[in-house]
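Hi team,

Below is the intake form for PTS system, trehalose-specific IIBC component from Spiroplasma floricola 23-6. Please confirm the fields before the structure is written into the shared record.

FORM ID: S-0412
PROTEIN: PTS system, trehalose-specific IIBC component
ORGANISM: Spiroplasma floricola 23-6
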Amino acid sequence: MGVLKVKAESENYQDYKILRDSVGGSKNIDSINRCSTRIRIVLLDISKLNVEALDNTVLFKKYVIKENTLQLLISKDIEKITIEFLKVLKISYDSVPNDFDISITRKDKIFKRLTDGISIIMKPIIPLLITLAIVSTLANIFTGIKFGAQTLAELNKPLEVIGNIFLMLQDALNLAFSVLIPWSIFRLMKGSEAIGISLGVVLCFFQLAGITQIIDTNSTTFHWPLAFIKNGEGWAQEQGYPWRISLEAQILPLVGISFIAVYLERLFTKKSIPVFKEMVAIPGITIVTFFLSILVIAPIGVMITFGINYGVLWATTNSIAKYIFNPLFGLTLPWMVVTGFIQIFVVVNMQQFTMYKGTTIMPMFTQLNIAVAASVLAVSIINRKNKDVQSVSIPAYSLAFISGSTEPALFGIGLRFLYPVLAASIGAATGIIITTFAGIGCTLGNASLLIFLSITQNSSVLENLNIKTIAGGPYLWMAIAIIATFIVTFAMTFIFSRIKYFKNINDNVLERDFGGKLNEIK
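The structure came back. Fields below:
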């Protein structure tokens, strides 16, 4: 994790400092996790805990001690308090992939570190992704949804112009997403953010060929339509070397070349030589990285991107494969969110949308979010007498239903009780089978109850995605899928809660995380 120099800027800085010292310092903290009402600090050695020191704080007078965990009851601004406490521990919030479950001294495995790394890179770009989702939804309302026999854009010229403006803005934001990836990596690695932005622009420059120009979306073959090196000898003369490839929408190659550029910057600026950085290092980084990208990374990267996009599209739409891959994908989706592996499919979803102007993954993300929300709603009803459970679960499932954000529900409730996650897996797979059978395609948007605004009926997009919608239309079948997901998940959560094994887990979690003897310093 990154290290942050801390200044006593927060009005509660002394409280955070006392809390850090009372738990035995940052080296005695294994992990920190939170829900909407409690911050739980898991300690390596509970004997080092000095709760009497909390008497001198304002924020941390209510607490519960369970096993090796100090649980702090927070009445408001819990996210802000968590972030500010991390600063006192000299942990940069930018280096934290998920503030609901933060490893401090615990060493994660390589795969977990990889998925966490993707989360950290995407984190500062999230506002742009939200904007892109909203713009894509608005563009779809004008150009992808049929009101009767026509879309709004087909009704009259002014509406067509408005639809085209949204489509143009959508394409521009797609480009901005690719440009900001190098910037995010330079920012994370404490490099020059200006070089990161410049690198993003030159690697996605409009004179370079985008992936949609190079790859025929209606064919499985790979071809190079541009005239590349014409005057070379041998192979280069006969075949043409593909050196004019843009890295727009090629997320993994962009990440790779950006890290290379960061380390080049560190190498070039290792020694402090007057004027060297401005006159040699910065131009050198851009030139070397650009040549390395267009001559090596981009040609390889475009084949990787094509392979991933086509592989996922085939698995999700092939007449046989889709009934195997999609339900299995649904069963594992909640666990992907918990492990962070979901970030890889978020990237694939973006690449698929950029290439095909639609996505087969969004309908499945929607079933996941509805299933998680339904499972937490069921847990809330099962444990309706526990006020702490209610205070955590109600905002969590409401957020999942409306916005599609499932982290508070999964980390605050689902993962603790376990059986809601199992129920959500079954429910999501049920809904996904229906959307797969019906043939539903979406643009980017909100994977929640608002998904109806992102369902597309654009024939060219559906053709690109190899999707054919059955009789009844996509809106009816999406509604049926959501209802089925909700009912199955809700019912399975109740059924699991009656099994002795899960009933014991339920009681233990209530005692450990949502109960216990409350200690309050007056």
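SUMMARY LINE: The chain is about 60% helix and 5% strand.

Thanks, M.
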